[in-house]
Amino acid sequence: MRLPLLSGSPSLGHEFLATVLPRLRKASELDTIENERARLENWHARLDRTLPTSMVPLFERRFSVVTEQLDGFPSYTITPRGMEPTRTILYAHGGGFVAPIDPFHVRYVTRLALALKARIVLPDYPLAPEYTWKSSYDALVAQAARWSAYGPLDLAGDSAGGGIALAIALGLRDESVALDRLLLIAPWVDLTTSTPETLDYSASDPWLKLSKLTAYAEFWAGSAADLGMPQVSPALASLEGLPPALMFCGTRDTLYPGCALLARRAAEADWDLTFVEQPDLIHVYPLMPFIPEARHAWKTTVEFLR
């Protein structure tokens, strides 16, 4: 089901972020695959991988954090202090499979924790190009299955993390593990870029560059031959038996055609997926602060997950 929420032009706040964020994130086309691989590996070698809490005021006073090691990588369980969680949300962060947890992710998941009386499980999975999906997928499915024993379990993720969340949901379904809800924010669910209109949508996207996405997709898959695997491109998998899901995507987003493909295949599979598609909005707009489009998305999200 497709459910547009807003009409009219994007807000001034959105247009400001659409101009500023690509510059801050240094959006650019691919130079060469070899140079990009070297750039990412050098960046990763210098990264501070501690949990980035700078956008959450008084984080340590308001939330407790427990760190768990999963097959060599950490996962953070964030719980509001003084609150007994009623559900668990496992959130897979975005970043093109090459970037770590961002302060925007922590801000968003702590808001979910407070609004839904939830504990948040936030895995810091190994990044490409040094690692592929094989380094974390089995551990993430096993972790989600363990948490399902403690009450209602939701999966959520944005961008690349949205694809990971959907892939985990497929793994849980195949193991007959109960899953309550699925939240997908501009998910990257087709790394084969099989939709022919992707090039046209990419031309209007100020942020995501298709040349880099193509390289990152193969980094994450490990080889071109694995791009279509369910763990890598879950939109191409069998979608029967999945839980109710909510998906957001703007049309000024290179990933929009993949999201539209997922919505079409969901309808064919009789999967209860609500697709909120917003004209002229950029990538992961629900995560952005202080814009009315994100406030609308937030209200819809909380109502759905409740």
Folded structure, characterized:
It is globular, with a radius of gyration of 18 Å. It is 38% helix and 17% strand. Helix 5 (137-148) packs across helix 6. An eight-stranded mixed sheet has the order 1-2-4-3-5-6-7-8, with helices on both faces. The model has no long low-confidence stretch (mean pLDDT 96). With 306 residues, it is an alpha/beta fold. Helix 4 (103-116) links the parallel strand 3 and strand 4 (118-123). The protein has a single domain, classed as Rossmann fold (3-Layer(aba) Sandwich).
Map the helices and strands:
Elements: H1 12-24, H2 33-46, H3 59-62, E1 63-70, E2 73-80, E3 87-92, H4 103-116, E4 118-123, H5 137-148, E5 153-158, H6 160-174, E6 181-185, H7 198-203, H8 210-221, E7 245-250, H9 256-268, E8 273-278, H10 292-305
Parallel strand pairs: 3-4, 3-5, 5-6, 6-7, 7-8
Antiparallel strand pairs: 1-2, 2-4
Helix proportion = 25-40%
Shape: globular
Number of helices: 10
Tell me the name of the CATH homologous superfamily.
Alpha/Beta hydrolase fold, catalytic domain
Distance between the termini: 19 Å
CATH C-level? Alpha Beta
Number of E strands: 8
CATH fold-level assignment = Rossmann fold
- β content, as a range? 15-25%
Radius of gyration: 18 Å
Overall number of structural domains: 1
Strand line-up of the largest beta sheet? 1-2-4-3-5-6-7-8
Largest β sheet strand count, sense and barrel closure: 8 strands, mixed
Mean pLDDT metric: 96
Structural class by secondary-structure content:
alpha/beta
Order of helices and strands: HHHEEEHEHEHEHHEHEH
Uncertain spans: none
The CATH architecture comes to: 3-Layer(aba) Sandwich
